[in-house]
Structures are given as C-alpha cells and as structure tokens.
Design goal:
This protein is an alpha/beta fold. Helices cover 41% and strands 16% of the residues. It folds into two domains: 164 residues, Rossmann fold (3-Layer(aba) Sandwich); 67 residues, no CATH class.
C-alpha cells in the first residue's frame, strides 16, 4: 500500500489540511503525519529522514510539506542530558499526536539504537539557551548563523524523494517563512526536478479570503482544512488520476 506523508508546524494540525488530504485519499494510502506545533524545518527534516529509513519511498508515495520559519531553534539531546536533567524530559511533557502539545519527542537512533530527545523551540533547554543571548555559540540555534545548511539538506531530501519515485508537493505556511530570494531558489530546483509547489501561503490565503483566525497567527481549523480543499486537493488530483 502506498503512503501519504504530511509535515509542517502548528499550521499543519492533524485535523487541518493533513486531514483533508487523508480523507481525500481514503483508505488507499497509509497516512503518516509529522506536523508539530512549534516545530522547525529541521525537526520535520529529522522526522522525514527517520520515516524514509523505516518505511522507504515507493513509486506512488505522496509527500506534502508545509515549510515553516527558517530560523526556528530546535535540538537533539541524548541520554546524558536525560540522566542529568530528568525533570526536563517527563513523559507528560512529550509531544502528543493526540493533544498536539509538548516540548520534545522521543526517537531511537538507528545507528546505536539509543534514545534521543528532539527538542522543540518551547523546551526549557532551548528557551534558556536563547535567553543567554549568546547566539553565536548557541547549542540549539545553529541555523541562525547559517540557515542555508539546514535548507540545503531539506531541499536535497525532497529531491531524493522525487528521484526515488515519490510525489512531492510543497507550500509555505506564510510568506515570511523563507526569504523571497530563498523561496525563488527553491522553486527553481523544484521546476528542474518536476516537484510540484504552490505560491499560495496558508496564512495569507486565509487573510485574503477574510476567514477568521483563532489567534494572531493561526486560522480556525475549518479554514485550515479549506486551504487543503481548495489549494492542495486540486494538485493531488492531477497526480493520482
């Protein structure tokens, strides 16, 4: 059975556009969702790479990726940090796909089979690091000094998924997620490699249509789904029919 993989930040809640995509494809695809509130492109890349190692990429698999801000901090910690600071890695604080709340996610490293802790930008260790204002030596904000290293890895991974036979669809959560020049370079590579993208950004699309927001940054879920229905589903239809 083919796979549909959806990924993004808090603009990609499981009951938003990813659910629209899943329902459209019905039971003919296994759905894997890696959207995380506060998640960075780096975290999504980490989880995407882990997915590829575990499940592979088959011809006909579909990957829909919502790009988020390129300067969001994140990090990965090992067992040593857990042993020293166990109170910062409580089970109840782990990110839950059901509540979509939490500050870290557990992951097993396939090289040494040991536990890793993927830290979201709201994790106390990341917050304390940023408050120190020593961003040039920051442990969790390396992409601040050179965000293009992380973006290059993301681009290469998307290109490799395409070359392996997968369908890749990309959009931005909002226009400022990437600098315009950076997005232009991304789309040049997308065009050269037959990766599908849309210039419609979820936030601006909802603003343009006067749809209500639940807070300053997030459209109500109903209209998040509507972005999926009116923007993403027509793209998907062209690929599966």
């Amino acid at each position: 059975m083919n796979k549909i993989v959806t990924a993004g930040c808090s603009l990609s809640p499981s009951d938003g556009w990813p659910s629209t995509v899943k329902d459209f494809l019905d039971s003919s695809y296994n759905h894997y969702h890696y959207g995380m509130g506060g998640g960075s492109n780096g975290i999504q890349l980490y989880l995407l790479e882990d997915h590829i190692i575990r499940y592979g990429v088959d011809t006909g698999d579909i990957f829909v990726f919502g790009l988020t801000g390129d300067l969001r901090p994140w990090g990965v910690e090992g067992q040593d940090s857990y042993n020293k600071l166990p109170h910062l890695f409580r089970d109840e604080d782990e990110y839950s796909k059901f509540t979509e709340v939490g500050s870290f996610k557990k992951s097993i490293n396939p090289i040494d089979d040991n536990q890793r802790y993927i830290l979201i930008q709201n994790h106390p260790l990341v917050v304390a690091d940023l408050k120190s204002k020593k961003t040039e030596t920051s442990k969790f904000f390396g992409n601040l000094n050179d965000p293009y290293i992380e973006l290059q890895r993301l681009l290469f991974t998307l290109l490799m998924i395409k070359k392996a036979g997968g369908t890749v669809i990309v959009f931005r959560g909002w226009t400022g997620a990437l600098k315009e020049k950076t997005w232009h370079r991304f789309t040049e590579h997308f065009k050269n490699n037959n990766i599908t993208y849309t210039d419609e950004c979820l936030v601006e699309w909802c603003l343009k249509n006067d749809y209500p927001f639940m807070d300053e940054h997030h459209p109500k879920v109903k209209y998040n789904r509507k972005f999926g229905e009116e923007i993403l589903l027509p793209i998907l239809s062209r690929h599966i029919n």
